[in-house]
Amino acid sequence: MTQAPTAKALVVDDRPENLVALEAVLQGLPVEIVSVTSGEDALKRLLADDYALILLDAQMPGMDGFETAEHIQRRERTRRIPIVFLTAADYDAHLAYRGYQAGAVDYLTKPFDPWVLRSKVMVFVDLWTASAALAARVAECEALRAAVDDARQLLENPWLDPASVLPRVRARLDAVDRDRVY
């Protein structure tokens, strides 16, 4: 039996005090917060781990949030991770449009309502969790299908030695039981 993986949120902001504030707002949610202070660091983290969502500061020195999002969208492995832009700038329709064009699913201006942010984060964590559970079930079905195919091969070919097929069937079924996510 395997435990379901924990959802992670990548939080990107060049100001450490903003990272601390975001961590405080998200405290208590079933999500592991990974904080970085630059777009470059975010891209490095995305190479190593999977994330349920990204909270991305739009305005940072060096590689800004828009450029970071464009890099994220170019990678097959990361293009489906939801990006929520956070910005201290007053709402600017042009900047919001630029954020959505870069791949954002939402664009929030500071100060934002912490309960709204918590709710949005939970939606993406729930979607990620459901997607992970579905992927585990798909893998389980594929393994069961392979075990059934092996067993059917034995039934359809009576001249086969059962000792050559049954261990493979048992191994596949044991793997399904071992990898089942609860």
Q: Report the mean per-residue pLDDT as an integer.
A: 86
Strands across the major sheet, in which order? 2-1-3-4-5
In N-to-C order, the SSE pattern is EHEHEHEHEHH
Tally of separate helices? 6
Give the overall shape, derived from the CA principal axes.
elongated
CA-CA gap between termini = 7 Å
Low-pLDDT regions: none
Return Rg in Å: 22 Å
Structural class designation: alpha/beta
Question: Would you write up a description of this structure?
Answer:
- The chain is α/β, with parallel strands linked by helices.
- It has helices at residues 16-26, 39-48, 65-74, 93-101, 114-156, 162-179; strands spanning 8-12, 32-36, 53-57, 83-87, 104-109.
- The chain has a five-stranded parallel beta sheet with strand order 2-1-3-4-5, with helices on both faces.
- Strand 4, helix 4 (93-101) and strand 5 (104-109) form a beta-alpha-beta unit.
- Helix 2 (39-48) runs parallel beside helix 3.
- The longest helix is centred in the last third of the chain and has 43 residues, at 114-156.
- The protein is elongated, with a radius of gyration of 22 Å.
- The mean pLDDT is 86.
Strand and helix layout:
Blueprint: E1 8-12, H1 16-26, E2 32-36, H2 39-48, E3 53-57, H3 65-74, E4 83-87, H4 93-101, E5 104-109, H5 114-156, H6 162-179
Parallel strand pairs: 1-2, 1-3, 3-4, 4-5
Helix pairs in contact: 2-3, 5-6
